[in-house]
Amino acid sequence: MKSAFLINFYRIFQELPNFSYLKTLKQETYMSYWALGIFIFIIIYIISNIVLYFLQERFIFKAEKLPTDFEFDYENQIFDEYNIEVDPGVNINGIHFKVRRPKGVVLYLKGNSRSIKGWGKFAVDFTRYGFDVLMVDYRGYGKSTGKRTEAGIKRDLQYVYDRLKEQVDEKYITLYGRSLGSGFATKLASSNNPRLLILDAPYYSVKHITKRFLPIMPMSLILRFPVKTYRWIEYVKCPIKIIHGTNDKLIPFKTSVKLSKINRKWARLYPVIDGGHNNLHTFPQYHRFLEEILHSELPKEIDPKNSSLNFRRKKA
Asked: Where are the domains of the chain?
């Protein structure tokens, strides 16, 4: 009796529906979700890289355009506007701030935002110490024209520098690069022989900046403006004065520490305690540093014939 019961129970159990397929189905569903998620991530990743490649100029260069008839106006400053045709159809616009008997001239390469309309106010930081100042707008900024490329900007600035050398000996030329301009100023200094290179909040390279904010993006492959300051600073053969705020959130202070170690012979670091990225000019320490730097290793006298510079393009 007992064994017949067990046999019948086993037969009934065998006839019950097999639910193991539900477990398999559940596993397959999970795998499908994972595969779909990975596929969507890859598509978004590819699209993001394409967008970054074509729109990176908008993130790197926050240009302000000015109408061709715009008139610059700076209180208590003597200045001339100048235009240099660097390539056919490519015009670089700039301002020459003048002093009566200049001790030298500062070629000021600005940051990535606005135009020299807004940056001109900083010329007084140099003119009050007896230095002429030249400011230029990069391609696509202000009244300057031309398609922006790293090679194009470097070529433009070298052309401006060459024109400057026609007017004044290099021993009177100081290069000042602020943020974005620090990379291009370093490139100029590495290819020429200025008196002095001043770097204000410099970066190691644009790739290193973007990697901080977009760590998963292949910036080495998609970045069209790498601007490798670290590579050029090694070849600079003049005093390098690096000013950097210790509380800079965009370009960390340690960046300047690294740069200063690449060229130990010529580089000196000037830390502005608690200074950020955009407010160094509000710190008295910055202005004390600048005064000290500008008057260091200053030539004893300047040729009087070069006391008035003219950068207007000569007519044929």
From this structure: 22-60, 63-299
The letter for the amino acid at 297 is: E
| Alpha carbons 195 and 84: distance in angstroms, whole number | 24
Q: 63-299, which class in CATH?
A: alpha beta
Phi, psi (rounded to 5 degrees) for 267 = -90, 140
Strand order in the sheet with 78-87: 78-87, 90-98, 131-136, 104-109, 173-178, 196-200, 240-245, 267-272
The encoded tokens of residue 264 equal 């130990």
Look over the chain and give the mean of its residue pLDDT values, rounded to a whole number: 83
Q: How far is CA 232 from CA 18, 127, 212, 265, in A?
A: 72, 28, 21, 15
For residue 291, give both structure tokens: 């005064």
Band the pLDDT of 89: cuts 50, 70, 90: confident
CA–CA dist 180, 310 (Å, integer)? 27
CA distances from 65 to 62, 141, 143, 195 (A): 10, 5, 6, 32
CB 174 within 8 A of CB 107: yes
Mark residue 130 as left, alpha or beta (left: phi above 0; alpha: psi -120 to 50; beta: remaining). left
- CB neighbour list of residue 132: distance below 8 Å, 6 or more residues apart: 96, 97, 98, 99, 102, 104, 105, 106, 126, 309
* Whole-angstrom Cα Rg for the chain: 30
pLDDT of 194: 96
Q: Find the angle CA(267)-CA(268)-CA(274) to the nearest 5 degrees.
A: 135
DSSP reduced 3-state for 218: coil
Question: Rounded to an integer, what distance in angstroms lies between the CA atom of residue 20 and that of residue 201?
Answer: 65
Per-residue pLDDT at 151 exceeds 80: yes
- Quote the longest CA-to-CA distance of the chain: 128
